[in-house]
């Protein structure tokens, strides 16, 4: 059968003979995945070496190998074989190896020269997975340093080819036309009266009624597939059946989904993005696209990765549409509007930009590289995410301070597991609990073995692995896969001893992997926990695990303000103290007891944000006590200090000088004083720990510490607290009531004074509030001379009538000042 790719194969072969690297762009259905490797086998430059082709998914890798083997009339494992994490069919005769992404990285690490291989092919590179980007970066370094003869082909259906060609040293680009089968696109957004699920069901039934052939429905995840499958039961014709297709299905179930429907029957394949590329599902000529996919999103703030349902890109929409035109003309129903189509992003974000980079950092450390900038990337790893991943691996003792692998890290690297899980498995071997560690790693690497389980206790899953009856219904296929993975881990681990496990051994081991997710139950009835990383988390109200005081959260959904715990285990306080002693801090804690109004001290044992133990202590660091008491007083806006009129006048006097002479004088507003309390107030609180003691504070002495000795002297000279009047009385000045200081004095005590009293070295007259003998205000002035000349006569008339027993001379400038009334018999 002729395929579009056949037309460009001669050009591809000639290009590789001359340039060694190329970019091949070919739309879905062109045949690049299965035709190109076979076409390269006979090339002289290959000279008996192997071809390795990277596929992003296990299903696609297995299907591509099987199809190529069929073309050669051979079983898989001879000329064409495949290798995935859980399955391998290769032999000494194998010339084409189709591998999944992690396999390529391990091959490179084991043999950086790639000696057995003459060509590396990156298929479906447009998906931009983290491992594909890493594999390309490492392969480019191999070509540059060791193997200039190594052929490199990057293939994609929707790739923006120019940037990748530039990365490959301006490599030639080859473009293949796709199939000519047209695909009609119909946009069908949900009407207002239907929910998205109701609309989806309606469109499936509509498509089956309108179109012939089988139907491929794209959905974001397994949960949506299960719901749609359930709703379609009993609503399809007798000749139509449903076939789910997603990554966690068994190999047999996946193969059944991509096989042609039996003669006279049609099928509805419910698939995730797994069916976007590399697969041809025979008989499918109708695609129904939800427009959604589920992608892992890493949150560098929480350190958690959660699956986020989001809109697909325009490139992915084209890929999905292309599934309908692989073998004949087809139809694509898009469950969104044409306007929404134009708003989709052109390409999905590369995983390297959004993912947890701990795997990448560890893989590069195994490669011997600690600086990612020394490699060639289409998108470089974000520095913040890189640093966070590096710090995590250092906490797990996989990396040393220099970023290189430790001995423990080298052992961990040989396990082929995610770093947290590999670290856990190694520690499990050290404790003699290797099998349990392998089981937990397998459980966390595969889909939940319990179907429909709401409860999060990992013990329920361990019971299912042992074949015992417990809470929840075990899925036989998933249980078998976990057991298979467990055995593979144990084969790599080669444990030397098996020791009895503690009752909380599962929690201990999970905590080895996730020390930041050890949680302590909060006070109250709700099953809520505080995690060591400071995040909140919660369990379902009926989850048996909620009885635990301490847990480890292995799987979380971090969508809300607090994360929901999907899988975890109980761990005891004693085990935390025993196994995580190197992470535990013992610190003295001071806190303010608002009821008793004093500083209390306690000794805390902490793991991250968790307080494991706390006991009161009678002794505490005096400086820390003073600092906390100062902080409390500041928070209470200094209102608890023993303020009196003299101290408040002191503040106003300094502010008066600051207003006229500038910031050589300190700001004595309460806001400013609060900001500098640790300098002027704290030294005078030494030895105090309660508010009642603060009441005895010498506040003026503390305030004066804000001034130098010379400033204290200048304060008394330039802004004196009191002024002496002609009678010899020392009258207090009020600096708080007006812009200028006020001298409130009985008028008679100023007889004989010709000028207004002044402050600020005689530069600024005060404001005089002249009072009657009964201390009632009679006149306000800043010009005493003018008052004597113009105002006194009228004031005298009034005061003589009201206070006849007092002196009211006609000439106040020559009359003696007095504090008293007239003696008996005196006149005037």
What does this protein structure show overall?
The chain is α/β, with parallel strands linked by helices. 36% of the residues lie in helices and 21% in strands. The model has no long low-confidence stretch (mean pLDDT 90). Helix 16 runs antiparallel to helix 17. Strand 6 (117-122), helix 5 and strand 7 form a beta-alpha-beta unit. The chain has 29 helices and 33 strands. 40% of the residues are buried. The protein has an 8-stranded mixed beta sheet, sandwiched between helices. Strands 9-16-13-10-12-11 form a 6-stranded parallel beta sheet, sandwiched between helices. It has a 5-stranded mixed β-barrel with strand order 19-20-21-23-22. The radius of gyration is 42 Å and the shape is elongated. It has 5 domains: 4-175, P-loop containing nucleotide triphosphate hydrolases (Rossmann fold); 183-353, Rossmann fold (3-Layer(aba) Sandwich), CATH 3.40.50.300; 415-582, no CATH class; 584-719, no CATH class; 722-802, no CATH class.
